[in-house]
Structures are given as C-alpha cells and as structure tokens.
C-alpha cells in the first residue's frame, strides 16, 4: 500500500455514499471509498456507513476480510465510526437477519423498534446523551431506521462483549445517548482511549443532520489530530 | 406523540437544471440558482428538501442528475428527488448522484411493481410515492389520482391507491392536491385526513399552503411533513416563521 489513507469510507456494496462523502468533504477531508482490508485496518479514521440489511452487509464484510480489519483497528483504539446499520453491525446480532453474527464488539441484539409507531422512523428526533458524554451533545438528529438497540431499564450503556475485541476493553470511558420513538433506544455511543475519541457509533445519520452532524464529526476527528497532522 | 418533529420541506421544481415554480402545473417562472436556494433554506431550518424534475428530455434529466450532485456537496440535510423516474436505473442514477430518497409518481401507477423494487433494493426509507389527487365526486373518497403532471385521469381512487402503495412497500406518500396547488388557499385537509388515517406511513402535505395557519391545519390533519414552494421562493414566508408559529401552538418542531 502506497500511503496511509486519511479517511476511509468502507464500501459495503449497497450503501449510497454520496452524503457520507459530502460530510467528509465538509470537514476538509479527502475520503477514500475502499473495501481493502489493509486500508480499513490502518487508515487514520474509518467510517462504516449503513444503508441496507444486516445479513448482506455482514456477509460482505466477512467475504472481504473487513470484519477482521475493523476489529483490529478497534482493538488498537483507532478512530472508527459507524452510521445507522454501520452502528448495528458492532453488536452481536440483529432480528433483521436471524442467525447472522455481527462484529460482536458490544453485547446485545438489535431489534425492531418497539412502541407501535410507523416504521421506519423517518425524520428528526432528539439525541439525549448521558451526562458523561463529551462528543455527543443534546440536539436534533435525522433518523431513517426500523431497527435499533433497545435501551433496557437497567441502563442505556451497552457492555463490551467479552468475546469481542480484547483491546476494546481498554477504553477509558464509554458513554451512550438515547432517543425515544415509542420506546427508548440507544441512538449513539462514544468511546475514548488515552484521552482521545476512538469509537463513534450513530444510529442516526450525522451526514444528514445539518450543522449538528458536521460538528459532531469535527469533534470526533479534530481531537484525534487526524485532520491537522497530515 | 412519536417524538419526531414535524418536517418543513421546501420544494424546488427543476426544468433542465434550473429552478422553476409552476402555478397549477402550467405557467412556469424561473426562481434562480438551486444551490443558493437550497443553502438558504437549510440555514432557515428546512428539515429536508424535495426536488421535482419536470424536464421533458433525456438531456434535461442528465442535467438534473448533475445538479443533484452539485447541491448534495453543498448541503447537509436529506434530499428527495422525483419527476420522470420510470425505472430502477433512473432511481439508482439519482441516488448515486446524491439523492437520499426518490419519489415515483406516474411510473408507480403504470408499473406498481417499481415501488417494491425500489424499497427492496435501496431500502423502504428511499421509496417515496407521489400522489397527485383532484376532487372527483364519482370516486368513493371523492378524490381521484392524476398522472403526467395532472394531465391524465387514472380512474383510481386516491385513498385506495394510497393504501395500495403503502402495502407495496412505500416508505412515505407525498400527497399533492392539484386543486389547491398554486392557489394559496391552504392544504386540502379533507384529502389529507382521509389518506393519513388510511395508511401507517408518513404523509407529506403539498399544494396550496400560503399562510401560517395552513401549516398548522396540515399538521392537525395528520401530515408528518409540510411542503411548500412558491411562498418560500418568493420570500413571502420563511421556514423559521412557520416553525416558530407551530412551536407556539405546541407542535414539536426542530428549532
């Protein structure tokens, strides 16, 4: 590989990438769309976008060896973001595709949103972060989802899976945000390592959430120095 | 109470890559550069943008796809594009250019299978069906579906058709009253209520809104989103004025 890419958008085959690419460009980055495991493993920052279904997306990641690449970079604490389905893939499984294993970095099964409201949830809803969150701030964000990780009564913050990625257990802190659509679900997660933002998982679409989404990703990237140190 | 904010959607009509606004689908007036317009609306608080391409030629459609790509790079809210989408390939081209969702109208009536095809290939959230309806006392609901920009009567009952498109996998209905479009008389609330009650998917109200009260009436009639065009292009109402008005009436909006 000639050069370490600044920002890789993972090519999952089904996603419409124009909006995510536009988000990266607004941040002054030149994104590379790639399905090459080496790119994904070592890029300064990676975005796993998400449109499509859990099963086919996971199949594509495994088929290309991208699951291992993603787990490797998460274990190393390299900045990694997941959007919508891209967030769901970090969990163990999804009701959407029974019998398919996710990346399993976090415990939990993604389920169809409960509460009897129209699905998909389509439009702007409130992001309500835990007080500890530093990247995530309260505000309106744009959703287009039928599935999500329910926020259990015991607490919104999902646990890291013991079978997941060993290095991931060394995050300094993890904080979640929830959103309510009929019932509460986990709408975002941030994880820090060595005082820097590492993981940013969004069930909403930051690329379509106006200035709020752009600023969230600027915080995620700037604090890592990924933007300025090149 | 879903927690979702009611969406305010400016609609830009395009012909050969330029923004125009029709009055009852006929006399067209050019309203300026679409990217400048789109940015202005995003700054004012637009929750989404809808573009309708009324180009009649292949060349015009290609220009449209290029315009969508240019506008996509400049704005950070969802874009729905409709007009002249007849095949899955047409939809794919617009999505590749940067549209987040596509809306089908005449093609859905002529080939209803396209609704399910778009939903299964690109996701339910991508599949918007535009329904243009006009009063017709001979129809069970009192409203008939028209296609080809209102020029052709289909004999389809608007409410029955709305149910069918929902069952075929549409993620949203963009419901335009042809009788009200361009008239400033407000949304056709009877039609809106009938359709919103009949389907479990979001309905976007379109056609006729010109005053603040019209937006509140549309919301109260069951619309999840409120679309308008001319009043925004002519600067008669701003999106923030509408949102403030709705918020004063205890309607959840993104401010």
Describe the structure.
The complex is a heterodimer of chains A (230) and B (255). In chain A, strands 1, 2, 3, 4, 5, 6, 7, 8, 9, 10, 11 and 12 form a twelve-stranded mixed β-sheet that branches. In chain A, 23% of the residues lie in helices and 30% in strands. Chain A has one domain: Class I glutamine amidotransferase (GATase) domain (Rossmann fold, 3-Layer(aba) Sandwich), CATH 3.40.50. Chain A is built from six helices and twelve strands. In chain A, helix 1 (18-26) links the parallel strand 1 and strand 2. Chain A has helices spanning 18-26, 37-42, 54-63, 66-75, 85-88, 210-222, and strands at 7-10, 31-34, 45-48, 80-83, 93-94, 109-112, 121-129, 139-145, 147-150, 173-181, 183-193, 196-202. Residues 223-230 of chain A have low confidence and may be disordered. Chain A has 230 residues and is an alpha/beta fold. Chain B is an alpha/beta fold. Chain B has a single domain, classed as TIM Barrel, CATH 3.20.20.70. In chain B, 38% of the residues lie in helices and 26% in strands. An eight-stranded parallel barrel of chain B has the order 1-4-5-6-7-10-11-12, surrounded by eight helices. In chain B, a hairpin with a 5-residue loop joins strand 2 (18-22) and strand 3 (28-32). In chain B, helix 8 crosses helix 10. The longest helix of chain B is centred in the N-terminal third of the chain and has 17 residues, at 58-74. Chain B is globular. The two termini of chain B are 18 Å apart. The A-B interface holds A 16, 18-19, 22-23, 25-26, 51-52, 117-118, 120-126, 140, 142, 144-146, 179-182, 205, 207-211, 213-214 and B 2-5, 7, 42, 47, 69, 72-73, 76-78, 95-98, 100, 122-125, 171-172, 200-202, 224-225, 254.
């Amino acid at each position: 590989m000639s050069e370490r890419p600044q920002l890789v958008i993972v090519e999952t085959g089904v996603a419409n990438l124009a909006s995510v690419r536009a988000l990266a460009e607004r941040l002054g980055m030149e994104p590379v769309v790639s399905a090459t495991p080496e790119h994904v493993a070592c890029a300064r920052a990676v975005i796993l976008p998400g449109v499509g279904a859990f099963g086919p997306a996971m199949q594509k990641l495994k088929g290309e060896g991208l699951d291992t690449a993603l787990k490797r970079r998460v274990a190393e604490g390299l900045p990694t973001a997941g959007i919508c389905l891209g967030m769901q893939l970090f969990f163990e499984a999804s009701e959407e595709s029974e019998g398919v294993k996710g990346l399993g970095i976090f415990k939990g099964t993604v389920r169809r949103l409960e509460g009897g409201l129209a699905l998909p949830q389509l439009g702007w809803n409130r992001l309500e972060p835990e007080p500890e969150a530093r990247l995530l701030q309260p505000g309106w964000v744009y959703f287009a989802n039928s599935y999500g990780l329910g926020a259990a009564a015991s607490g919104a913050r999902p646990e890291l899976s013991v079978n997941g990625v060993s290095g991931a257990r060394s995050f300094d802190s993890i904080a979640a945000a929830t959103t309510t659509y009929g019932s509460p679900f986990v709408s975002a997660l941030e994880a820090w390592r060595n005082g820097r933002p590492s993981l940013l998982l969004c069930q909403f679409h930051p690329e379509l959430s106006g200035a709020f989404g752009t600023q969230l990703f600027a915080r995620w990237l700037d604090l890592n120095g990924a933007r300025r140190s090149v | 109470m879903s927690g979702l904010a009611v969406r305010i959607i400016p609609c830009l009509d395009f012909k050969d890559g330029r923004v125009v606004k029709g009055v009852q689908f006929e006399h067209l007036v050019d309203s300026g550069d679409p990217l400048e317009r789109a940015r202005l609306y995003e700054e004012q608080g637009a929750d989404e943008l809808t573009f309708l391409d009324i180009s009649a030629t292949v060349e015009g459609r290609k220009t449209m796809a290029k315009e969508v790509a240019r506008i996509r790079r400049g704005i950070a809210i969802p874009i729905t594009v409709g007009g002249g989408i007849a095949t899955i390939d047409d939809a794919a081209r617009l999505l590749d250019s940067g549209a987040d969702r596509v809306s089908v109208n005449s093609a859905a009536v002529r080939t209803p299978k396209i609704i399910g095809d778009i939903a299964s290939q690109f996701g339910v959230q991508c599949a918007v069906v535009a329904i243009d309806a006009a009063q017709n006392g001979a129809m069970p609901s009192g409203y008939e579906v028209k296609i080809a920009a209102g020029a052709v009567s289909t004999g389809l009952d608007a409410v029955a058709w709305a149910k069918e498109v929902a069952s075929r996998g549409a993620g949203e209905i963009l419901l335009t009253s042809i009788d009200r479009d361009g008239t400033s008389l407000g949304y056709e609330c009877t039609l809106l209520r009938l359709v919103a009650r009949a389907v479990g998917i979001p309905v976007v109200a379109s056609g006729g809104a010109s005053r603040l009260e019209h937006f509140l009436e549309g919301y109260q009639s069951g619309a999840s989103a409120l679309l308008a065009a001319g009043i925004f292009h002519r600067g008669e109402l701003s999106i923030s004025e509408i949102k403030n008005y709705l918020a004063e009436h205890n309607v959840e909006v993104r401010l």
